[in-house]
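Journal club prep — side note

Before the paper discussion, L.F. wants everyone to see what a predicted structure for a comparable chain looks like in token form. Sequence:
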Amino acid sequence: MKEFTVNGSVMKCYPLTAAQRLHTYTIRYAPHQVICIGTGLYVQQDVDFGLLKEAIYETYTKFDSMRLRFLKDDDDTIYQYVVPFEERDIPFCDFSSWREEDAHNEMKKWTAVPFERFNSPMNRIVMVKLPNGYNGTYLKVDHMTMDSSSIIAFSSYVLELYCAKRYGTPRPKTDPMPYLKAVEKDLEYEAGSSAQKRDEEFWLGELKRSEPMYTDFTGMGRLLTMRREMNDPDMRSCLVISKDPAADIAVFSLEKEPSERLMAFCEENHVPMASLLLMGLRTVLSKFNNDEKDVSLKTCIARRGTLLEKRSGGTRIHFFPLRTIIEPETAFIDALNIIQAEQNKIFRHANYDPIAHTFNRVKELHLRPGMSYESISLTYQPLTLRQKDTELPDIPYKSIWYTNGVAGQPLYLTVMHRTEDRGLDFNFEYRKDVVSKDEMEYLYYYLCRVLFRGIEDKNRTVGQILEMI
């Protein structure tokens, strides 16, 4: 920790955490990247925007990660600090006379505009009136300051506080914990702790295994092309970066009843939903790549196991490769247990710096620049804006995630529960130069076929499922 004078005040400034450095790495090596997240939360009811503004300002005082700023010192090292309060205006935008599609497209444009990186606010809230009686807020945050868990927590707090002010419902039961306390814990880990050394040993050991195999969500074509271009018929990695980062989001909604069947299967068989989704994805990749048994993809680790981590806001996500080699005669439930065991290993060592692991992998496996073994990243977000322990009026809600228009990876799937009915939404953020929306629908179709063929008979083998789909 260092002290710097900012606008005449002495501020305690902290180094970036590994989760934040992940984004600075992205910006450095892909300067076209925009690391903004845009979301919308709208209720189908008239809103008292004066009370809503009060609720937002009060929530700013609770979530110190929403008051985060960055600065550079003389040697270009980036630090972070928290300002004591926010004085920014919260604007109002009336889209009620627009077509709803046009209104959402306008907010996509807002999301594509990056923040000024240093000594500047890293979020923006706009109060919004939409057509069809929906009203609420648009929120844009810089990913270095908040992740999806933090955004949902912040938005839920605003909503509960607003309802408390307007309807007399209970105020939020729990307040966030100090963000900088979580930063201090992360920095203690990185300062040569025994836990860090154990995690480093684990990940270096993972690199001693045989080389993984790249499996693409569009089939073998990309890898075969790379092999021809590189004159290397045995190449097992593939180029995943692109000169054209233009991206979009395709959202496919699974109805409430089949979503509940998936959740019931997980509960009955003590399997996390994330493991079931990973099983579905790796089976589709196997199918699309000549029934390949060796499949790798990137899994998102939220790193929110403790009370401090759950309630401290900020960004904590680490990505790590998840590799499984599953024989075709393996039963579906046994394959799920294999995946869960691999996930558990990663969870135990998830505090390790994912960028350090990436550099170590490049060195150990002699990867060329921009090459990887994973074509898909997965995030499962179990939180919703309406949790079981909240006491909110029964009002129709609508929550939307807006693309910022660019992507650094070919495909990033986020699976979330809908606010209104807890059904599952599959949000595919895809790079347009790699795949089309129609191909995303094709992938979603096969993903659902795998999931439901598996849960209807958990003893069905992976080979049988591959033949059925």
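L.F.'s comment for the group: The chain has two domains: 13-183, 194-382+404-468. Keep this in mind when we get to the figures.
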